[in-house]
């Protein structure tokens, strides 16, 4: 529906015609002006078209690429509601492809009609009018149970209704774009809150430790120096996150940009463990002394911090194990917790946005951490997977190409 014009000029008579049949058209124009979704447009059109033409049936057909979708109908007997057909094999598709109104007095005598679809129905005659003829996006079909050639007045009414429907569909598209913009804004705010919460908590913890060291008196330079170093790293991490968060708000519109450089994955994992652990659980790292690949350092740190924070949150205080290894051309990181585990039905969706592994109030979060992990890993050309069983913890495995 994107690309529909936002405005259109349609003439509505300044004076109400005396004919009673004008009432449905004017009412349809008012109803379509307030429609906010395609289903409502189809509902108004099908009812108005029957009232205006006296037809025995009406369909509202959407164009979907090389197919047509019979979205809705109002008829004396079922027709094709909900069905999809190739546009090249359907009269509605023909009308949209050729941008022309079609009037057929005997459907069984017209070569464009798929007889096997029409034979079981009541349809003897029809008229098909494209919506927005310059670039059709839909069509309105009117059907009669007896031989009938649609009159010029009936075609005019269907054409006027198609014009109102075109404007309504344009408005629906604009409303959808507005909703998407609002959703993107809300996503950005949620991502910002989620991404900043973990390093901020770690920073607050280290500041508290330093304050207690100072209050204790004595020569505590070594301990204070270590704490200040952690504070410095957390502060730098926050600065990097703030600079990169704006990119995350556009992940659905374009690929995630990476700044690759030689990075020691083991060192990143140790820093991520320091940030994510926060004294809540022991995080044990097993791996080589160094494992260097060409990664985006900040993005990979984000992914590992999210995996570790997730393991700590659901691990019930038990140790979290991180196994780092190298396979041919691939670095592998496995994060294992000993928590409540993930239900089988949830494993396929936990990497989706706003999905949580355990949807209960006992565990906070926006359901964005694992979604971010997947975005970052796939941007590197890697994969992320999970193995789990209820009550037996979970193991998330990330594989990243080294080059």
Strand order of the largest sheet: 3-2-1-6-5-4
Q: Order of SSEs, N→C?
A: HHEEEHEHEEHHEHEEHEEHEE
Shape: elongated
Our estimate of the beta-strand percent is 15-25%
Helices and strands in order, then pairings?
Layout: H1 22-33, H2 38-53, E1 57-64, E2 67-75, E3 84-86, H3 91-98, E4 102-104, H4 115-118, E5 125-131, E6 138-144, H5 152-216, H6 221-248, E7 260-264, H7 265-277, E8 283-286, E9 292-296, H8 297-314, E10 320-327, E11 330-336, H9 369-379, E12 383-388, E13 394-401
Parallel strand pairs: 8-10
Antiparallel strand pairs: 1-2, 1-6, 2-3, 4-5, 5-6, 7-9, 10-11, 11-13, 12-13
Helix pairs in contact: 1-2, 1-5, 2-5, 5-6, 5-7, 7-8, 8-9
List keywords for this structure.
403 residues; alpha+beta; six-stranded antiparallel beta sheet; five-stranded mixed beta sheet; 13 strands; 43% helix
How would you characterize this protein structure?
The protein is α+β, with helices and mostly antiparallel strands. It is 43% helix and 20% strand. It is built from 9 helices and 13 strands. A hairpin with an 8-residue loop joins strand 2 and strand 3. The longest helix has 65 residues, at 152-216. The radius of gyration is 31 Å and the shape is elongated. It starts with 21 loop residues before the first helix and ends with a strand.
